[in-house]
Amino acid sequence: MHLALYQPDIPQNVGAAIRLAACLGMRLDVIDPCGFPWDERKIRQSALDYRDHLDLMRHSSWDNFKIVSAGRRIILLSTKAALPYLDFEFQADDILLAGRESAGVPEHVHEAADARVFIPMRAGFVPSTLSMPAPWLQVKPCGKPPEKLDLCHGARLMKE
């Protein structure tokens, strides 16, 4: 499974995604243009010592990414999706695509995705970075869904 970031806005979030992808053994794709100047030294600094432990691929555009990703399903993580990720059948070679922190993805990217899923959370809350909810997505394909989870559309509620 790969993790892809569509034109990320925040370099520290890219660093967190690098750490996450390295820990989970995922390749990380970054689709340019980023909302910040890419500085390899600063990226390495925010990624700590993890940068050398993963396959990081940068793509000059969405079109370039689509060419390189041909034959693999692109699963868009979207607050506009109707399907919770727990109800989706992931495949080992899927690409999990996250949009810009500030704006998500444009409509043509939504349309190009093979599927769209959302990560249920409490209403009114958004994680500060994709690296917080993304491990849930890695657990589901492994057949070990989290316990104590009640779903309602767009909200994650923990039972006491």
What is the topological layout?
Layout: E1 2-6, H1 11-24, E2 27-31, H2 40-46, E3 56-59, H3 62-68, E4 74-77, E5 83-84, E6 95-98, H4 107-112, E7 115-118, H5 134-139, E8 149-152, E9 155-158
Parallel strand pairs: 1-2, 1-6, 2-3, 4-6, 4-7, 5-7
Antiparallel strand pairs: 8-9
Describe the structure.
The chain is built from 5 helices and 9 strands. With 160 residues, it is α/β, with parallel strands linked by helices. The protein has a single domain (2-158), classed as Alpha/beta knot (3-Layer(aba) Sandwich). The strands form 2 sheets. A 7-stranded parallel β-sheet has the order 3-2-1-6-4-7-5. A two-stranded antiparallel sheet has the order 8-9. A hairpin with a 2-residue loop joins strand 8 and strand 9 (155-158). Helix 1 (11-24) packs across helix 2 (40-46). The longest helix has 14 residues, at 11-24.
Task: Tell me how many strands there are.
Answer: 9
Radius of gyration, whole Å: 15 Å
Q: Tell me the span between the first and last alpha carbons.
A: 33 Å
Structural class: alpha/beta
Put simply, the count of helices is 5
The CATH homologous superfamily name equals: SPOUT methyltransferase, trefoil knot domain
Helix content: 25-40%
Estimated share of beta-strand residues: 15-25%
From the spread of the alpha carbons, the general shape counts as globular
Would you identify the CATH architecture?
3-Layer(aba) Sandwich
Strand order of the largest sheet: 3-2-1-6-4-7-5
CATH topology: Alpha/beta knot
Order of SSEs, N→C?
EHEHEHEEEHEHEE
Poorly predicted ranges (pLDDT <50, ≥5 residues)?
A: 142-160
Largest sheet: 7 strands, parallel
Give the overall pLDDT as a whole number.
80
CATH class: Alpha Beta
Instruction: Write down the domain tally.
Output: 1
